[in-house]
Specification:
This protein is an all-alpha fold. Helices cover about 70% and strands about 0% of the residues. It is globular, with a radius of gyration of 19 Å.
Length: about 260
């Protein structure tokens, strides 16, 4: 479960939607109340949050769950699916995903998750080509953020699943030879995280993955100094917060970029 600072989520969503405080809160709460909520001086009630977010076409759940399920066993099965993906046990990942799908309700979060993971699995198992990989991930993000490209130069409070879909989509653009678009998506996600709308541990984990992906993208684009700088930044953060999972990736990236510079 990811945790979010709801005052920042409301403000960022409102600004991305181009709404004034008066336009957003009309009939829901006073402008003064909304201002105090956005500035973190007033906690937001569940019903108020739901109405504000739904007016902007977003989720009304305060927790921004990763999946919409009531059964904790389904969340455990989702975690198992992710672990099998990381281990590259794709047949097992597909099996667990198929079991999970039997119990998922028709909810945008669930539809987005299934579309994303099925697309990633199909690509990694060689069942679809790069173009279909890109199309499948575009379909996944479009379920909740159909206009994501309009946000490439701004900040937006993406949910955990939207962030995952966009990270995969960035990779798909890179696989299709559009490294510039890959970099723009990753930079957008990093810029959004820098606003502090996601609580620390989740934000640190996501940032480390994004630094790694961006370093790879810069390296492939011949910008080796930038790639090394990002990898070194990732190493510093990993050491500070004792996050060791991506350290080998960072060191390998630095070694590869240095070798390319020498060559």
């Amino acid at each position: 479960m990811a945790y979010y600072h709801l005052n920042k989520v409301i403000r960022m969503t409102r600004m991305a939607a181009g709404l004034s405080q008066e336009e957003l809160c009309d009939g829901i709460c006073s402008v003064q109340t909304l201002s105090r909520i956005e500035n973190g001086r007033h906690s937001v009630k569940r019903e108020t949050y739901r109405r504000l977010m739904e007016r902007m076409g977003r989720y009304g759940e305060k927790s921004y769950p990763k999946l919409s399920v009531d059964d904790l066993r389904m969340l455990d099965l989702q975690q198992q699916t992710r672990q099998e993906l990381v281990r590259r046990n794709y047949d097992q990942a597909q099996y667990k995903l198929d079991r999970l799908k039997l119990h998922l309700a028709e909810h945008p979060l669930n539809l987005q998750y299934v579309q994303r993971v099925e697309t990633v699995l199909a690509y990694r198992m060689g069942r679809i080509a790069k173009e279909e990989y890109l199309q499948g991930l575009q379909k996944a993000i479009a379920i909740t953020v159909p206009d994501y490209e309009s946000l490439l130069e701004t900040e937006f409070p993406f949910t955990h699943e939207e962030t995952m879909a966009l990270m995969n989509l960035a990779d798909a653009w890179g696989q299709n030879g559009d490294l510039d678009r890959e970099v723009k998506i990753i930079q957008m996600l990093l810029r959004s995280l820098d606003t502090g709308y996601v609580e620390d541990d989740e934000a640190i984990n996501t940032r480390l993955v994004l630094f790694n992906n961006l370093a790879v993208a810069y390296g492939e684009n011949g910008q080796h100094s930038k790639a090394i700088e990002l990898a070194e930044q990732g190493i510093r953060i990993s050491r500070k917060y004792q996050k060791v999972q991506l350290l080998p990736n960072y060191y390998l990236q630095i070694a590869w970029d240095m070798a390319e510079q020498i060559r």
